[in-house]
Amino acid sequence: MPRDEAQATTFGGRTPEDGRIDWGVGAVDVDRLVRAATHPCPGAFTNWRDRRLFVWAGEPTARLGPPRELPPGSILGVDDVGLVVATGRGAFRILRCQLEGDDEKDGAEFALENALGPGGLLGPGS
């Protein structure tokens, strides 16, 4: 069936800002964005100390979300596998990441090298 061009709409295409992680959504939604934007795409990212932190791999965790006083994007802890971050619903473990201008690393290695631990914050204003 031919399309009626008067009824048609267009989409402007993907912009780099489409890869920004919104920690306020659930861990499953963060996981979907990370998987959709991973290599060879530009990557999903958040901010840390006014630099982009690209998240190349991760997973929702069974760990419960943060206490109510901690905002989404709060670092809940570091385990031997990755860096665990609070989301709006649940928690997300960063397995592979890369600080803008640096090499890609395991989430736990990145946390150790940068002295990240519970109470830190990822995202705007971090």
Helix content: 10-25%
The end-to-end span amounts to 52 Å
Give the overall form: elongated
CATH architecture: Roll
Report mean pLDDT, rounded to a whole number.
90
H/E series, N to C?
HEEEEEEH
Q: Give the percentage of residues in beta strands.
A: 25-35%
Total strand segments: 6
User: Uncertain runs with pLDDT below 50, 5 residues or more?
Assistant: none
| Quaternary organisation of the protein chains | single chain
List the helices and strands and how they pair.
Elements: H1 27-37, E1 44-48, E2 51-61, E3 75-78, E4 83-86, E5 91-99, E6 105-106, H2 107-113
Describe what this molecule looks like in 3D:
The chain has 126 residues and is of the alpha+beta class. It has one domain: Formyl transferase, C-terminal domain (Methionyl-tRNA Fmet Formyltransferase, Chain A, domain 2, Roll), CATH 3.10.25.10. Helices cover 14% and strands 28% of the residues. It contains two helices and six strands, in the order H-E-E-E-E-E-E-H. Strands 1, 2, 3, 4, 5 and 6 form a six-stranded antiparallel sheet that branches. Strand 3 and strand 4 (83-86) form a beta hairpin. The N and C termini lie far apart (52 Å). The model has no long low-confidence stretch (mean pLDDT 90).
